Every structure is written in C-alpha cells, then in structure tokens.
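Allow me, if you will, to draw on your knowledge of protein folds for a short while. A protein sequence and the structure tokens that stand for its backbone fold form the material at issue. I would ask you to consider whether the tokens describe a fold that such a sequence might reasonably adopt. Thank you for your consideration; the sequence and its tokens are set out here:
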Amino acid sequence: MTDQKAVSGSESTFQFQKNWEELLDSADFVNIFLSDVLENYIVQQRWYGGKSSKLKYIELAEFFKIQQKGEMYYGLILEVNFVEAFYQHYFLPIAFVTDENFAQQDRILPIEINGQKGHIIDATNLESFRKLVFERIVTAEPIDTTKVQYHKSHLFVDNSYESSRFMGLEQSNTSLIYNEKYVLKFFRRIFADKNPDYEMSRFLSEKKGFKNTPSYLGSINLVDSDDVNITIGLMQEMIPNEGDAWEYTLKELHKVFSNLEYKNISIENLPIVNLYLDLDIRDIPPQIIDWAGLHLFLQVQTLAKRTAEMHIALGSEFEETAFTPAHYNGDYTVWLKNKVLYQFQNRLNAVENNIHKLEGLALELAHEFLDKKNEIRKRFVDFDWTRLKGERIRIHGDYHLGQVLVKENDFYILDFEGEPESTIRDRKVKQSPLKDVAGIFRSFHYAIYATIFNNPEHYPFNRDQLFKAGEVLYRYITGLFLGTYVTETQNANLNIGYNQERIFILKYCLLEKAVYELGYELNSRPEWAVIPLKGISNIINH
C-alpha cells in the first residue's frame, strides 16, 4: 500500500509509506498534492499573479533539494496552466513539520509519513529553513556546478547567523530580513532565465561599485533540466531608510499645496515655463521657490544625479555583452512599434468600453484621446531610428518613486525586475535611459494629482485651480530634473543624443508610459484616469 486517505473530523490526512527524503519520487503523492491540495492553496497566496485568469491544472515542472548536514527541504517549480492557453511558473519551498505550532502558520497539507503525523508547510515560515539558506550562501564555493547554485559576493563579509524574520506583506515576492542587516528576496513568479533584478544588482554592485543601490551579497540559482539558469533568491544589504520616495514626495507636496493658502499665493499669477526645458536651479523664479520651498527642488536635483549615476554605470561597460551600449537599429524599432501599438489598441478599447464611468475633465480628455487616436498612433509609428545618434543601454525599466528609498536626504534605487506586464526577454532589451526618466516624470505627475485627490478638505480651492497649480509645479520639477540629469550624463560622456533627439525620445516614452497607466486606472479607479489622460494631452498638444 503506497498511500491512503484517513478522515478524522473535518480534516483529511494523507498517509504515505515513504520517507520525507523520497516523497517527491512518489507519483501518488505528486498527483494528490498538485490536484487536490495546491490548486486551492496557491490561488489564496498574495504572490500568486494569476488571479484574473482561470486556473486549469498545476504540473510539477521541477523539484530539487535544499539541504545541509542531514536537514532537508524541497524547492518546487510549479507550472500553473490556465484555461486561456498560457502558463506561469512559481517557486514554492516546502517543509514537513510535526509541531502543531508551526502547522498553524502556513499549512498546505495534513500528512502522515511512515506513521508520523504532521503537516507540509511553506518552508519560509521555519527559522531552521531560513538559517540553512543563509548558511548555504555564506559558505558557498566560488564556483558552484551543482543543480542548486549558491553564490556569495566578495562584498559579503559576515558569516554568522543571528536572526531572521519576514520583511512584511509583499505582493509578488517573499523577502526575509537576516541579522537586521540583510534582505533575502525569494522570487515567487519565476522565469526560465536569470532574473534582471539579480543581474542588474550584481553588475552595479560588484562590477561598477554603484553606491546608491543595496549592495549585492549573494544569490541562489537553479540550473533546470534544460540547462537554463533560473534565479530563485537574491541577497542584498538592507538600507535603513525613512520610507520610499513616493510617500516622502506626497508629504512634501502636501506642504506645497497647503502653502497656497498659508502664503496667500495667486495661482493665476504663478509664472509658468515650457515643458521639457533643461532647467538649472537658478532658473526657477523666486515666486516658485517661495511657494514650493527650496528643499523640494534640492531633493529633485539629488534624485536626478543618482538616476544619472545609475545610467552612467550601466552605460560604461565594454566587455560583458549583456551590458555593452548599443545603437538604434531596425530590429529594435520593429520590437518597439509592435509592443506600443498593441498596447495602444488595447487601451483604446478600454477607453471606449469605460467612457461611461468618466466625468468632468477626465471625460473631456477621454474624448480628446479618442478624437486624436490617429495622431497618437502616428506618433508611435514615426519612430525613425536612422535619425537617432544616442545609445541604448540596460535600464531599470520600471522606474518610479516607489522604487526609491529615502535616507538622510539621499536616495537609493532598488527593484530592477522590470515592467510587470513585459516578458523576461523584453525586460532585458537595451533602451534609451530616458525611458527611466519618463517613468520618474510620470511618477511626479501622479504624486501631484494624488495629493490633490487625497486631501480635498485641506485646500480651499476648486479642483481645476489645484490642477492648474499642479501642472505649473510639474513643469519646474521635471525641468530641473532634466537639466541636472543631462548635465551629469554629458559630463560623463554617456551618449543620450542631441537636444531634439532627447525631447523626441522623452515625449515618446512619456506617451508610452501614460498609455500603459491608462489601462490600470480605467479598470481599478476611473476617477484617477484623469492623470494619464492629462499626461497624454500634455504631449499631443505640445
């Protein structure tokens, strides 16, 4: 008898006459585990990204042992197949525990193995598992040729385990804090390739010594049955911080909008500047400094410098082909146009289907978007690579204020995984660094409007007046960022193109970003659709 199901009370216990070390070799166990158990478990996890699709079945694509000195856990690579004819891969480490206290934490399956009752749980809940993984990284050999490859950076000097805990609630990954000094991020949704976060983090830290990102300390990679290197975990230093730049900016902007009343500022008389001008801090009029405060602009300058330094590091490689700069060409142009035109058509349909949810300025801008759809499409089609002299490099790819930590008036950039909607291959395509600049610009635009939306009772002005003030502020923030960024990159000989080229690419990327955002807002919070719609309007009317 290989297995049976014993029912006691309301819960079923599966019985197997196998050792834990051989359990995954049992076809009976695997079948029951995947079909009866994991389908229900996985859809309830925060890191599961298939909630909007219909799960068809789960297959065990790969399993491996995570072990040391007789202690053993399993790592599972699960292939989740969907009715819509696509699939996703997820990483799940599992442990067998007999202690009921552990079983309450993240219980997957009640089970009896060789007469011993217990539960299978997510192994990250066990301190013994977390400690084992830490020790495997810190004792890793310089060259590991086994199936599960642990790597330790020369930057990691600590060898002793003290403590571990969960970082907190995260959506797509699970992060563990060690010794209150290091973070190990387990990637849950995984891809058949090295994760860009691992590649970029290791490159910036180990090869370029870029200080304004958490140092790369180690990693766990799996070489699968097809000999493909898959990133499972990434160990980095923990940056003590005061929160992310998104929350920080919202607090700063709340003070700025409060100053409209406090300083009795006339919105109508605020001096305005053109979009996409390269500004120096001396170009910002005294009235604007008086309203918004010098501190905000100094912080924008610092963030622009750190962004430029990141791109200078990424664009200064001439050996490692994954990071050497490239020129624009026909292949890139075909890839880009296919991507943006598909996305544009998708968002066009979304606007047409959701226009009944909009009102006021959002409705007005949505009609403008539909009326000018051919003009917007033409802007995307008119990408002529032969006129571009700048270079493409590896970029952050999903750069916004939420990806930046604030510490003592400085900024640290993290999370290099790339755009969530993109394939792993697309995330590694070399692009203009101005795409990251566009991401931050859109993030500032969002922060300004979010401040207005979130504090309606705090500012004694109507929304249109606040929008007007916000647009004035946006022009100075982005102009100063751009001026600082261009100066830094040019001084370091990073080739981001001549002035007209820079403006063309920046507007192209801003339009692409705003169109991308539009889908999310129409589906999730139609009132906020005014933000990307206003961003689109700024570009097509400029």
